[in-house]
Amino acid sequence: MHLIIAEKHDAAKRIAQILSGNKPRPYRIGGVEAFKFDDKVVMGLSGHIVGVDYPPGYNNWQKVDCKELIRAEIVVRPINDKIVNALRSLGKEADRITVATDYDREGELIGVEALKIAKEANPRLREDRVRYSAIVKDEILKAFKNAGKVDYDLAASGEARQIIDLVWGAALTRYISLTSGRLGKEFLSVGRVQSPTLALIVDREKEIQSFVPKPYWEIYADLERDLRVQHARGRIWEKDEVDSIVARLGPVGIIRSIQTKPRVEKPPAPFDTTSFISAASGIGFSAANAMRIAEWLYVNGFISYPRTDNTVYPPSIDLVALTRLFLKGEFSKEAEKLLGGKMVPTRGKRSTTDHPPIYPTAPVNKSELKEEQWKIYELVVRRFFATLAESCVWDATSLKVDIGPEPFRASGARLVEPGWRYYYPYSKAEERILPALKEGERLRVLGHSVEAKETQPPARYGQGKLIKLMDELGLGTKSTRHDIISKLYARAYVQGNPMRPTNTAYAVVDTLQKYAPTITKPEMTQTLEKDMTQISEQKIKEDEVIEESRVMLTSVFDELSCNQEDIGQSLKDGLRTDKIVGTCEKCNSELIIRRGHRGSRFIGCSGYPECRFTLPLPRSGAVVVTDKVCEKHGMFHIRIINKGKRPWDLGCPHCNFLDWQAKKALELAEGKESGEGKGAKARPAKKTVRGSGAKAAKKASGPSNADGDGLARLPGIGPKTLEKLASAGIKTSGELAGANAKSLAAKTGLSEKKIAAWKSAAKALS
DNA sequence: GCAAGGTC
């Protein structure tokens, strides 16, 4: 039997279809679906099926000296047992195995991992490797006709990367976590990609903080015929000069020249992962969310593989036939127009061997997708169309006017031919139409204005911009960059979008930049890339590169241990400030996030034990203190970040607590005790509160609300109830708490029981 | 409970 190994299930399926000429038989083995035809079986892996790690003896962070990790044994263990087992049993049956994983470095390593497992089960296996750049018939058939050798050197270079990443990452992650006392769920992490990325964000923030704005002025004049012109000097840095220019202005402007030239905007290049995420970011998607949706669209057959560095369509894709598929449905107008043109595809700068650019593979009805999925799908379709469309052409006019001795100018732009912009309307193309004028024409000056401005600090990085920057610096890959960004949020290193570093991030980056600068710079990745190339070219041995790296890390640790005390202190100082939530309403001390026993957290007063004011916090997730302030309590809003979930904006912890109390009181009054209610510790910050909190916020902003102290926040009170209560003279929760339930019921028509429940809830609230 | 890299 001839066993063929692909990188993923989907690739296996399509390769089997092409090689078999029709539909291969699905062939289940140990819960894994492979494909069988003739004497062949094609099986898909799931990327890496084994991973490197330390033996279990090193699991205890406190007991193992992190320096030991530099030279500790590293073991390879299966990540996916099902696939490993299936591979073993298929390997036993086979006499030949062909590696058909993706045509790149990691693909070679993934292939070798699989090969090792199969050969352990059956040492007599003959092996070979096929290389293809797209899973299309010609390409695959050609690849299988010209099978070559497995490139063990290329795989070895990938293995070196794995080991170096693990050793540096694990040792420094543990060091920084132990030194700062942030253990357990709240550990701090360090890595070859994440730390330089975080440093970019921190460095940018420092630039912004230290930016000194410089004042400047711009002079504008309004002329008849609706013409507004700016002084040709643009930014003028001296106020004196502004004044003297203004003094020289006359009552009439004379048109010196007026020139119109065409300006051509070329259509954009096909989407690779970076430009896709960046475009999605422009319409409000986070990097991780955009990739999650793209992945779904790919798995369901609507778009091509979303993880690619390629910006050139391979000739094997029939672009015209693909466009014709869109003649029916949502994009029929666009498809028809496009097919009437030349349809010459644009080419980007990068052309790679593993996957084509991202393009739509099939039309789909809008009603079949969720709103977000549709938006991403539409983006991919429109980008695809744009890459086949004509240039966008403008008439650009530049106008020069003299007012007295002073030169002024204006520029106009008129859209002549929208070209690709017709299909891809994501960036606005604004026209500025100038009045029709002739050289030498004289216009009266109606007035002028001097605008005082100042230079602006550089902008914070949004996720789209950061992904692009990482790409340029070689940080991470198309498949990991969005994950790395998510990781920075999960560690509470950054918040918001554009991204702002927390004080924790400052402390960690400062420490690393001072004592372990290697890990904070993109150069580490660039050097590693060079070493990997040398390994794959047999110029250095894998072991030499790893050994060199270990020696380097050893000296980093020497430097760290020399400055142990300083580092511990500065980390703890930085970390403390991220924990200040507000000021205690009882004693004016700082309220900070504190740890209770058994991993619980709460907000406590730093005046303890004299002051015992506390507020509860949820048990799980990283607690982030945001910069949004509650108007009522003056406390910073809290955000909870759980791995793999959306961040939860808990809001003001005091408001959250009051909401919860009110809700509890209501439940008790209605007699439906939820299991956790009775005798349970106060745990307001639970998901159940979230709904009512959000509703409450909506209600509170409703127009019919005359409520100053949270009447609308009581669970079960909607706008209609509010009106009814208001008609009986009840406008605040205080008034409700003091009202007689029976007579109020009679006045409003509301049930007495409900009113009684609201009353006790209102009491809890006030 | 650590990294980064695949894929789901």
UniProtKB/TrEMBL annotation:
Q: Which InterPro entries match?
A: DNA_repair_Rad51/TF_NusA_a-hlx, Topo_IA, Topo_IA_2, Topo_IA_cen, Topo_IA_cen_sub1, Topo_IA_cen_sub2, Topo_IA_cen_sub3, Topo_IA_core_domain
Keyword flag Magnesium: yes
Renumbered to this chain, the Basic residues biased-composition regions fall at 680-689
Per the record, where are the segments of Basic and acidic residues compositional bias?
Answer: 670-679
**Region annotation Interaction with DNA: where it falls in the sequence:** 189-194
Write the record's keywords in alphabetical order, separated by commas: DNA-binding, Isomerase, Magnesium, Metal-binding, Repeat, Topoisomerase, Zinc, Zinc-finger
Biased composition, class Low complexity, residue ranges: 691-706
- The EC number(s) given in the record are 5.6.2.1
Tell me a GO cellular component.
chromosome
Q: What is an annotated GO biological process for this record, any one?
A: DNA repair
Which residue ranges does the record annotate as region Disordered? Answer: 344-363, 670-715
Instruction: Give the domain of life.
Output: Archaea
GO terms, molecular function: DNA binding; DNA topoisomerase type I (single strand cut, ATP-independent) activity; nucleotide binding; zinc ion binding
Reactions mediated catalytically: ATP-independent breakage of single-stranded DNA, followed by passage and rejoining
Q: Where is this site: Interaction with DNA?
A: H48, R161, D165, R307, R491
How does the annotation summarize its subunit structure? Monomer.
**Record PANTHER family:** DNA TOPOISOMERASE 1, PROKARYOTIC DNA TOPOISOMERASE
- Name the job this protein performs: Releases the supercoiling and torsional tension of DNA, which is introduced during the DNA replication and transcription, by transiently cleaving and rejoining one strand of the DNA duplex. Introduces a single-strand break via transesterification at a target site in duplex DNA. The scissile phosphodiester is attacked by the catalytic tyrosine of the enzyme, resulting in the formation of a DNA-(5'-phosphotyrosyl)-enzyme intermediate and the expulsion of a 3'-OH DNA strand. The free DNA strand then undergoes passage around the unbroken strand, thus removing DNA supercoils.
Name it. Answer: DNA topoisomerase 1
Please name the source species: Methanothrix soehngenii (strain ATCC 5969 / DSM 3671 / JCM 10134 / NBRC 103675 / OCM 69 / GP-6) (Methanosaeta concilii)
